[in-house]
Amino acid sequence: MNKTEDFLLELGQISPKHVSQLSESFNNLPKNEYCDGEYRLRRYSQFNFSQDKLPNIGIINILKKLPAKAFTQSADFNVFQGNVVRQYEEIEQDIIESEAFVEIFARFKGITNLDDEANIEVHQMRIIAKGEAGSQVTPEGVHQDGFQNIGMFVIDSSNVSGGELNIHTQQQAKPFIKHKFDQGEFVVLNDERFWHSAEDICSAGSGGGHMDLFVLTA
User: Fold this and answer.
1) Which structural domain range is residue 205 located in?
2) Percent of residues in the chain assigned helix, strand, coil, to nearest 5
């Protein structure tokens, strides 16, 4: 449950030091067996996140990984792979234990004011651009994900053109935010109030390119 029902949207930036700590792990993302598996690599895990304030110590962050489960989205929200039960490998333990990963949760919770018991689902994704052929960052088109809150934390956008994240007030409306997020920039938004999409990415030179991001939903 989100205690702040009137929350709308916030932009931000995680620390450059933590961006660097997270970047390398995207090279370990596996392909998957689903229809976007060749160009959208992914890991997926669930967590609870809470914070305790202790005298003379300060704030203690408590990140708890929940048991693995398959990921499914209703076809009402995902016209691309709706109602498909998808099983992904989990996020690597060294990332889960890093200060960098905890900062993402702290920023997400600080903005949304989620309850400690809220399940936070995390997708770690790399979208690959090969040659001049465009790769779809959001093959669902302009959509909502069926949650109260979404956070999109872009860690890297390397050697690509396109990839701007778009935020819309209605599904058919033009985006009122259109920005190529990069190097730890993020947007957290109320999924019940806004729609989102992204421009396709193309390789900006030889050797291909990619866009790396964490997507949090709760």
Assistant:
1) 9-217
2) 15, 40, 45
